[in-house]
Amino acid sequence: MLTRSLLTLSIEGTSLKLLASRGKQVSAWATIPLSPRFSRGGFVVEPQGLASVIRAAVSKKEFSQRHRVLASIPAFHSICRTLELPNLPEVRPDVAIPQQARRDFGYSAESSILRWQPLVSVGGQRRFFIVSVPREPVITLIETLKLAGLHPDKIETTTFALSRAVNQSQAIIVAVEPNGLDSIILKDGIPLAVRSTFSGERPQDSESLPTLVTDALGNIMSFYSESYPDNPLPPDIPVYLLGSSLSLNANIVSAVETDLGRSVSEFEPPVLCPQHFLKAELAVNIGLMLKEL
Question: Which whole number is the average pLDDT over 246-268?
Answer without folding.
Answer: 93
